[in-house]
Specification:
The structure is a homodimer of 423-residue chains.
Chain A: E1 3-8, H1 10-14, H2 20-31, E2 36-42, H3 46-59, E3 62-66, H4 77-85, E4 89-91, H5 93-105, H6 112-117, E5 119-121, E6 124-127, E7 136-140, E8 149-153, H7 157-172, E9 179-187, H8 192-198, H9 200-204, E10 210-217, E11 220-229, H10 232-250, E12 254-256, H11 262-273, E13 277-281, H12 287-293, E14 302-308, H13 311-318, H14 322-328, H15 333-347, E15 351-357, E16 372-380, E17 386-394, H16 399-420
Helix pairs in contact in A: 2-7, 3-4, 11-16
């Protein structure tokens, strides 16, 4: 079974809205072994929708459509499909009750428009909308389209996502006849080409049903090992073999083999070990604290963060020595170390991290160029001894990318220390 | 002139990579008056590429392709286009020099693969690659395809973006014969349906060549007013008329009519007025500081930020009274006010903002549910008087969305104070 995804909406064609729905649907279909052949974005225009649907239904066994399913003038998908398939509408009682209930809670009367939204195409399986009003539909398109299936969903991501998870995936999973497994390998501190060079032998010897994708992002690169086949056991074994071969080769750069962020790994270890963390930031401007506190439950391990942009703030809030700043410069390993130690002592944390660097675009010199960052990690051993160590890194992005990479280096420093000292 | 955008790549079909290239291209084309009819993602498979190209070149005057243009086995776009158009390759000397220079700098020898990358399709206009190796091409596809144009570019965003800006847009701008103007209207503190209700009259009376799009995002909603026509003067006048009508109606929620972020507006005003800001954060966990320091030049106005998650940190770092926390709770307007005042006094800033709330998923009660946030802004008037004021908001997102909305409320509070007191 192969699928096409059709996203309807002029706002997508103008580029002001990025098509995240298609990615979500593709990932969900991939999990049940249905590969996507094409993703097509077309306009709200009825002729454009008709042409696109006709072409896709001729080739793909499964066509999933988002958008154009709602109460406004722009919402023409249902009408177009009716005409294409020559079918009428039927009243769907459960959807009507759900819709009127939602509006009643908002204090509105029942209108003709609500009744209209509860009409679905003849012969379709209704897909309940648990997050909004208009229901979705799963339609067997009949002989003319080789009994290919059409799925209609709204374009609102939360509504579509709930429909996929609750109804569409359970409907098609037993019909796919295949199994696909994707395993992510999350890395830090290594670029795409270096990584590719290290695992070239693994890639050359990879079994035929497994593919490897490189997913570069602002802070580095992730790998995705994908295996497809008919039997779950075979697929899992083949996938595991490749993942293990890669982790063995580049293990020191791997922080996880599941979809987790670096901050999630750090917070999980902190909570497991009952340790408290504090953060002192200059160039990252609060981003390290913000990433750590993005993790639910981080209040159990995060004590405080200090964003000390000015030299005065470094001195007053963290107790950095004015002389160190004068002699070594604010961006120096010595200052990073004093920031981390000051932060540890003032907060009473078990471990702390400090950043000082030049995010750009201004502020760089030939000696200390834009993209340079000093990261220091301080911790107290179980015996009470203070340990602090700083490292310097060079990044080559714009201001925002540099901030992200700096914060990645800081979280990575925390992770290394947590693994080496507190293990 | 109408355009199709074709994105080639199996990684896009798997959903692990979101297609941001297509949005970028659509926005750039929109600026020179070329609307996009379809955005199609297809696989690396030569037959899929051939079918997709043939269909698009039959309909669209301009077809822009990204992906499959590089040195690896997956890169089949050039070969497919050669076969489709029946053309050979020619050696492009300038590209070859650029490529060898890049590899020479990396200490590598000239190889056959580099020579191959410098080959372009006969009769094409070379699009220099200023950010990578393989050049792009602009191809007049001849009689068979009604002299429609095909543009080939790599899938790497930075390479494609530079090609669009430096070569492709300048090439097609004089050929488009139309003019499109998009004006964003950036709002805060108002939801999509409320906004739509307020401007329903403006929308109903809108001239035919102007359209209005709603662009909801985590923190609220932006509007985009788009006008197209043949004459720049007419388009500008019509667009301006609609923008002014909307701003007049919902002015208090509008913070800008250009693509700027709230933090950019706040930092610009701070720098203009020579004021210093400090931030005290609980539930936003550093996000307010991070957003302010995302803005280049923010070091000229940002003094310090304190992320005080624990009650102890609020007391020790900001001087919040333990009794206030005990009596009112850590999430209260009284604590927010003490945080803002403590932050202002300790940092010596002219204005400060503080947040305390419940981002979730845990920690909510019936009285203080998840999504509740108290924001306080403190400032000193020119005469030296301290002014502090707190507000409470309720958000309804997940942890990350709540953090973003909380930070938006904090930045919005800063903006209001900057406009009212320091004007």
């Amino acid at each position: 079974m192969k699928a096409d995804i059709i996203s309807i909406g002029d706002e997508l064609l103008k580029g002001h809205r990025i098509n995240t729905n298609a990615s979500f649907i593709a990932i969900e279909l991939g999990r049940i072994g249905i590969p996507v052949s094409r993703i097509i974005t077309c306009s709200d225009d009825p002729k454009a929708i008709t042409d696109t649907l006709t072409a896709s239904l001729g080739e793909a066994e499964l066509v999933l459509v988002t958008g154009g399913l709602g109460p406004t003038r722009d919402d023409r998908t249902r009408t177009v499909v009716q005409e294409l398939l020559g079918r009428g509408l039927v009243f769907e009682h459960e959807s009507f009750e759900r819709i009127t209930e939602i509006f009643r809670r908002r204090g509105r009367d029942v209108t003709e428009s609500m009744r209209d939204q509860a009409m679905v195409i003849e012969g379709s399986v209704t897909v309940p909308n648990t997050k909004g009003t208009a229901p979705g539909m799963i339609i067997d398109c009949g002989d003319r389209f080789h009994n290919h299936h059409l799925v209609l969903m709204p374009g609102v991501p939360s509504e579509m996502e709930a429909m996929m998870k609750l109804t569409v995936i359970p409907f098609f999973a037993p019909r796919s006849g295949a199994f696909i497994l994707h395993t992510p390998i999350m890395t830090i501190g290594i670029g795409e080409s270096q990584l590719a060079g290290m695992i070239v032998n693994v890639e050359d010897g990879m079994p035929a049903r497994t593919t490897l994708s490189y997913l570069p992002h602002a802070a580095g690169v992730s790998l995705m090992v994908s295996t497809s086949g008919g039997s779950r056991q075979e697929v899992e074994a083949e996938n595991r073999g490749v993942v293990e071969a890669i982790v063995t080769t580049v293990g020191s750069f791997v922080y996880a083999t599941s979809e987790v962020t670096l901050e999630e790994v750090v917070v999980r270890i902190l909570l497991e070990k009952g340790l408290k963390v504090a953060v002192a930031e200059s160039c990252t401007g609060g981003l390290v604290s913000s990433r750590l506190t993005d993790v639910p439950g981080s209040s159990g391990c995060f004590l405080s963060g200090m964003v000390t942009y000015s030299n005065e703030a470094k001195e007053e809030l963290l107790g950095v020595d004015a002389e160190t700043i004068q002699q070594q410069g604010a961006v120096s390993e010595a200052v990073a170390e004093e920031m981390a130690c000051g932060c540890l002592l003032k907060s009473g944390a078990d471990i702390s991290v400090a950043t000082t660097g030049i995010a750009g675009p201004g502020g760089g010199t030939s000696e200390k160029p834009v993209g340079m960052v000093c990261v220091a990690v301080a911790s107290r051993s179980r015996a009470g001894a203070l340990q602090v160590e700083a490292s310097t890194f060079s990044m080559h992005g714009d201001r925002h990318t540099n901030k992200v990479r700096f914060s990645e280096a800081a979280l990575s420093g925390l992770l290394d220390r947590l693994r080496s000292v507190f293990s």
